[in-house]
Amino acid sequence: xxxxxxxxxxxxxxxxxxxxxxxxxxxxxxxxxxxxxxxxxxxxxxxxxxxxxxxxxxxxxxxxxxxxxxxxxxxxxxxxxxxxxxxxxxxxxxxxxxxxxxxxxxxxxxxxxxxxxxxxxxxxxxxxxxxxxxxxxxxxxxxxxxxxxxxxxxxxxxxxxxxxx
Length: 165
Hints:
The protein is α+β, with helices and mostly antiparallel strands. It has helices at 8-30, 34-42; strands spanning 47-55, 62-71, 77-83, 87-96, 99-103, 106-108, 112-116, 122-128, 137-144, 150-157. The chain is 19% helix and 44% strand.
């Protein structure tokens, strides 16, 4: 039996089809945002901070602070230090069950977030410069293992303040 002879249109279609599919794939890939392409190709953390607050403390020498660090980048980072003119003694803590544990660093996952909240991971401020009052703003500097430091202004909220989800 003799193989069937293909006409020129069939050969052209068979040759062009892989090229069209490859071009479509490039077009789809090209639709990613510039930010997505940079974070995937560079593999760097892209950090931002939101939801920061410090409840007005009951004691004059100790307070807690809460915030969220979001990482839109393709590589994890770590929060390694937090400083503020308000306190010369800021430590990071995790809470396991009912026990607080000091943490030397806190992980900020790639494409994820580090959430510091009441009853969980948080910042403890000791040796306060003064007792912060509701309405005041306190400067904090967050330092990371690989990313540049981030300075934020943290509002002092009432002691009973609960952020909206």
